[in-house]
Amino acid sequence: MPQRNPLAVLRPGKMSSNWITSAETPEDCRSNPLFLCVLSNTDTCRIPNISAAGATTELNDYTPAGDAEIVVYGSTRSVLELPMKRDGAPTPAVMTRAALQLTGIPYLFVNSGLQIVPDVPAIDLGAPPGRDIRYGDAVPYTGTIYERATQIGMQLGKLSDFITIGESIPGGTTTALGILTALGYDYGVSSSYINNPLDIKHAVVRQGIDASGLTTGKARADPLHAIAAIGDPMMPAVAGLVRGMTSSDMSIVLAGGTQMIAVFTILTHLGIDTSRISIATTKYVSQDSSIDFDAVIRDLGCPIHVVDPGFAGSHIAGLRKYEAGEVKEGVGAGGAMYAAGLLGVTQGEMLGAVEAVYEALMSG
Amino acid sequence: MPQRNPLAVLRPGKMSSNWITSAETPEDCRSNPLFLCVLSNTDTCRIPNISAAGATTELNDYTPAGDAEIVVYGSTRSVLELPMKRDGAPTPAVMTRAALQLTGIPYLFVNSGLQIVPDVPAIDLGAPPGRDIRYGDAVPYTGTIYERATQIGMQLGKLSDFITIGESIPGGTTTALGILTALGYDYGVSSSYINNPLDIKHAVVRQGIDASGLTTGKARADPLHAIAAIGDPMMPAVAGLVRGMTSSDMSIVLAGGTQMIAVFTILTHLGIDTSRISIATTKYVSQDSSIDFDAVIRDLGCPIHVVDPGFAGSHIAGLRKYEAGEVKEGVGAGGAMYAAGLLGVTQGEMLGAVEAVYEALMSG
């Protein structure tokens, strides 16, 4: 049941298909696509009830590794539990796998601070996992991560003219709220829970900002310092990758919701050219009342592509839970499906492929 | 002083330039090149007097990390000593850096069993360092390395139609002799020393083969098992990368001397299509009397490109030592320069760039 998104009304633009709402379509950039997924951990996800991105709070650390294995193999290998709640909506990795399978788009994983390393090869930035942001000293070696990611971005930017970058980091919406708050933006924040634990998140962020002594002025003047205080290791990785992709005729799609909005604001304050960047996410993020998407669109000046994988019409109860607001986005799912849509995949094909991936995963 | 190589006489072919002797030139594959360098360690290099690929035998473990840092930064970072003998010929990393700088070819490093990790991001195959081949159990997780490298090769093969793969692994000519002997080939073996310590190498290999119980039949029937017994972690990495690059219209250049000849024979016995593969190396390997290059060319049925960087005419004594047979090759130097030649770089430009890299390195 594709549903026309308010974005198309807010920003005049064209629809690349009936399941993707886009303000602008980089139609000349489909020749040589690449999908990247940055995998990170932050101890912030161990704060009780802050993230639903794992079977239990204790197992959240395994989620990025499990997600990577599901994208590559269709099942987990080094992780016994699936990265999802029992009887809950499946990890968005099922959408990412389905989109990459349908299109054959090449993909690479980037390890930027994993606690648990998957049985999948990855570009290693040598980053330690992120720390609990409540203590205001969250990301060791932020500058090194940023520089190393820049190096990789420089190389990959020569190989592809259309690069989509997703992430998997449990607790990432809280660290995104941290950096957005530090930089002085009040868009709200999305969640992998239906009922967003906003009180906990705001208290955590407040505690971290107080501990770090960050002010909006300091954070805007030195966004890497702000990440080091109250961010996560995914942020300097994605920012560096984008910084390294210097070719002016390429398109970069940041694939995610709140977390990629946070990265976009970081890039802006780092003075990096954002004219080549758009954001792609699922309609479940865009419909989340916890985040002021209108304000995001107004402020960022960045094309946002919203993807509806048609789960309302699925025969699988777990997928229909996305429609109720569970999980919503992650593992670059929105961006991977956006790229699939650009390459001509229909909503029906996408839904069928996601259902097949889900059924194989649950029977494994 | 370009010197016509006997290869051009042995195999009818064309010269792509006056400093590169090629049997066949993949002229239609220059649109989207990529350079890969696999970095590995094997404890085999700790056997006294077996490898000159480091300042001292004790420092050989640092050589791949130092090489990678020289390629990226022009100097070492995490390693205090340069990966070369004092007053000796410089590491071939200076050629690789010069060629990549001149051409802008994108590059990625692959960590397949590093003891020391460089201050450079790399694709991590999660491999442990190789063990001393004398004990016949040299490469743990050979199959896993091979599978993970295959995954990476599948992705990179979609991004580039011309992939050059080099290596840096001290002790690698000894492990190459190990696998060649196990597979029943008697080409001899090159060396980073002027005076190749062949007696030591043959004794080491004999001991390893005896310890492992390998026969030629067993090794040919199961080349991965032979690598596990008497090879090194670079081999399953390069073999897997090639295996994953399934596109029939791409060119793969194995950049190196004896070690890539060993990989080529492994690929042959693995039943992998080698029709897209050529080998590029320096003239210092091709002129090494310790290796029967004529037999290699006759047996392998693989185009070999031989590169002369013109060091005979250099004002730098360290570079002229290559002409005397010191170091000879490594870090994919021959292949990187071959790609540069295909892209129109002249021998004079190459020599000048290598001299500049060398002078910056030594003054740093």
Fold and architecture overview:
The structure is a homodimer of 364-residue chains. Chain A has 364 residues and is α/β, with parallel strands linked by helices. Chain A has one domain (6-363): Rossmann fold (3-Layer(aba) Sandwich), CATH 3.40.50. Helix content of chain A is 43%, strand content 12%. The longest helix of chain A has 18 residues, at 142-159. Strand 5 of chain A pairs antiparallel with strand 5 of chain B, so a sheet runs across the interface.
Task: List the main descriptive attributes of the protein structure presented here.
Rossmann fold, 12% strand, 15 helices, 43% helix, alpha/beta, disordered N terminus, 364 residues, homodimer, nine-stranded mixed sheet
- The global form of chain A is globular
CATH architecture tag of chain A: 3-Layer(aba) Sandwich
Order of strands, main sheet of chain A, comes to 1-2-9-8-7-6-3-4-5
Q: Taking all residues together, what is the mean pLDDT of chain A?
A: 90
The helix/strand order of chain A is HEEEHHEEHEHHHHHEHEHHEHHH
Helix content of chain A: 40-55%
The radius of gyration over CA of chain A amounts to 18 Å
How many strand elements of chain A? 9
Strand portion of chain A = 5-15%
Briefly note the CATH topology name of chain A: Rossmann fold
Task: Assign the CATH superfamily of chain A.
Answer: Nicotinate-nucleotide-dimethylbenzimidazole phosphoribosyltransferase (CobT), large domain
Oligomer: homodimer
